[in-house]
């Protein structure tokens, strides 16, 4: 049974951007999906948050789910977290609380996805506001190591590391997707094996019955 | 002298292209290559269109140095003539050098789909023949044209956009921007000094004025439908707008030329050299010419590039033969037209232009830049003649009433009137001829007018020649006075009608230029009878009126022969009647042009001779670069021959007529060339060749000094009223050029001043959306003080334009009033109050006392009340159109509440202090209703201001209390759902609660309460609930299916695609999901910059961003209409207490989600699940991509459900 993925040249992933209000995560998203040729950005159309990027020569379509504006609808967070294949956890380097909130977000993700290895990227936004830094780089790196998730200091304003962070996340998702596929195929193969074995057994049993 | 040499310059400039050297100068290499390619294209009639333009190496050059930017306008730097083969299959546009093209699209093969502004013809053209055209001065105008084009093309004409002249503003501002240089006023020194500039400016303005007039007609046509086809008018307007650009381009050319001139450059020596060598290479066919007696070898030796043109040689050669006998080599050059007139025309024009652009110091030699064509607009002429005629008749009638008239004075008056009437008729005839479409109406009124004038003349003659017996002396008796009076008034009336018709026709066909001479031109009446009474001895010819040709014949040579253009007549001795200037044969009504024959329109020598004579004496001084091409294959002529004599020389060395002749030929040929270009099958060569004067100016290179004849006409003809009108409009201070528009004609950007101007426009009631957007969002892009300043400034400068001052000032007052009454926000706007008060007291009171008083009162009130005075109608954006009544008539009976006595008792008991009822105790429908009432109350209280600038996310949402209340209610509702399910220990009860909530959600969905629907489905799919597998197993498949479809309708994927679609078609009452609007607003806010750069490099407010914001808000407001449902106070109270309860829990405990999850784990421990999943052997976490996103869990639930029996 061939996997349907092997026929899909272009993969599609949902990326969920999470973070406290005011950390500028929507700026990151807007920067990332904004097509420079479009004079003005209309967020009300279907593919406002859809973009295609190329990662290591592979075309990937990303659908960005951004909770911007709806942070107050706490109940929806679960909904977002369920849909994501990868998560971008954003804090502002100028806000300590926004950094602290990441822990809760990650706990929720792990709980909801029941998966420790879900692709995550940590982004310290507003890197251009170095003079207002409230979160030490070391602290952020420590968190990054603890979670085994890459950390980027980005700036939506200067468009630094925006694409890089998304690309990294994409790479993680692709890698995971590949290994999952393998695992799935393994399972399927095993299941087919099991089924065949069962049938054999049953047939044997039937044969026995017939003899009996 | 200056004029004379200018004149000479003009001639030589036109001729110059034909003397072009191919093999010299580096700058020409490109041109010669091109010539080759184009000649290849021509002679081989290439089958593959792209080959022609792309075949040339230049393609790369052109594209490499231009950025990969889409250029909206291209300007041909080289002529392009599609070969017949090409034109057969596709519509390929011929290009003249200097033609400006509006590009619609560019194919990768280098062909562009474009519209030639000159003619409005659309087709394919090779981009490598063109350069991007976007000079700074024109930028605003070009942008305006783009907007105009988009608007006229995309908007339905019934649209109210056209109800005002608003959409014209861009163009006017564009012209203003162009003239802004130094030429805004007629009195500016530059305009005064530079005649060509003055003319070009005038013609630009007159074009603008006719566009404005047409726009007015469009308005009229809209008011009274059926009168005129609106689409026709729209088309006409587009063409007119194109013409404005064409004129603008021309104006700029002249200006540039002038600027160059003012830079002192080269010595005369270099100039001479340049003169001889610099002209650029023309295409082979036309560039070739014989300068000497033995053309072929000469040319062959000189230019190898042109060999490919030999195919045209035989014909040309024969011409040479004939020609050389006829005149000297220069004359022979005429016959290069035998090859292809159209081609020649283009080439010659082209090179004129090119020449001018590359060797501008050549012109400096002459000391003048010269105007090529004077602008003698027929409309102007018509008006002038009409005025003169009326003034004559008027004074005549006036004198009649004085009762005593001397015979000689009567005769003189009649004569004057008749003469001027004749002139007027002549103009009318030209108009008639121009519009070959049968303008019966005009014809008719022309005849009437003619009859009336004749009648007047006859009456006068009768009276004069047959004096009554009682008459003594030279006095006319009163009875006769009556007759004369009648005849004269009849004349006035008929003339009025005729002129009106003529104007109408001119408007239809477009104004055109016509060279009038200053002399006795016009239709002549037989006034001989009068002559004896007047001192004037001028005898007029007969009163033939049949053809203009005949009338002109009285002045100059008969032009009628010209009509036989197709006849291969060969040069005759050029008649050198250096005569008065004659109009440049507009009456050459020949059908020739209708058929694009391979060798059409060989201009005959005869023709040229006539035309020659038409040129004024001035030309004696003109220099002649008379070397015209003869043979296509020969390109060069040695500079040694007198042909190459620079201007000064030729004046002495060469006979003038050569130059005349050559000029006339170019003129003619260009006329015919244009005919070819034209798609208007109806237009005759007459119209073409005369419109030529208006149209091809860009192709004609520098327009410099006008001829004397033109000058005289121009001086005599007063500026028309319309031009004045437009001028005064232009002189108005305006910021309209600082506005930016989108394709729909909506403002997308602008400086504050420009936006304020738009807000207070006098021409129309400002666009409602624009006004409400402005009021709603202005604090995001300026301070209230800025706004007050801008408004006051607007009030001030409106005074500069008296005719708009009053309406503009009133509007300014109204803007202040609206602000104070309905949009005042004291906390931010207070700063502006002193300024507004002062304005009201001083300036406004001075201009509009009443208004000043009222505004002051308002300001007082506002400062006292500290809030808005009149209930806010901002929401009018959405609400005005969707009033509650529209959807829910007030008399609709309220649905009766679904609640039983026992339920009410339960609530009463609860109030009395006994235990609280549960959700399960009430009907899902009624619960849904009460929830909806509750939520809608919150939703309706949201104000637009709360939604601006992402306020609800900042400072804990302090600036957006209602948004916060609403979102917190939604979250609490979710928590309530989870809480009420997890409340029960028994699986059965939990399943029951889930089912109940699904039913409530379903009822919410039926009520179009998407906010509650979102809250409930979110809760039901929350991990804490969804993981209760045992519980879900007890929920029926039917309910689960129901939940699935409910979820689907509030799916967040693809940017709420499903939800948006539903809302779009939804009529109120409906409660949309607030979060979606909040996300949209956030992204509009962060995704669009605050400012943008206009085409003129100005940083302006990105009004588009604010318009988008306002649109989203108005969409939200569309739903701020309460439901008509009965509120059940007790149930409401209970619901409130429930919500409050979970909210308290939320506050007390860490976070509700975590609490719920813990509870969930308690109810159905993890181990059990893991056990199950191990048994299942199905992957625990199916990737969402396979499982279908958020529904994955349902499916996995189902599968486990289905699988378990098998095991």
From TrEMBL, chain A:
MF GO annotations: G protein activity; GTP binding
Topology of this chain in the membrane: Lipid-anchor
Domain of life: Eukaryota
Keyword Ribonucleoprotein carried by entry: no
A Pfam family: Ras
SUPFAM superfamilies referenced in this protein's UniProt entry, alphabetically: P-loop containing nucleoside triphosphate hydrolases
Compartment(s) where it occurs, according to its Swiss-Prot or TrEMBL record: Cell membrane
Catalysed reactions, semicolon-separated: GTP + H2O = GDP + phosphate + H(+)
GO CC terms of this entry: plasma membrane
Similarity annotation: Belongs to the small GTPase superfamily. Ras family.
Record-given protein name: Ras-related protein RSR1
Automatic annotation (TrEMBL), chain B:
Domain of life per record: Eukaryota
Residue ranges annotated for the SH3 domain, each copy included: 69-135
Pfam families reported for this sequence: RasGEF, RasGEF_N
Cross-referenced SMART domains: RasGEF (SM00147), RasGEFN (SM00229), SH3 (SM00326)
Ras-GEF domain boundaries: 923-1166
Bias (Polar residues) ranges: 20-49, 632-654, 662-675, 683-706
Protein name per the record: Ras GEF
Organism: Canariomyces notabilis
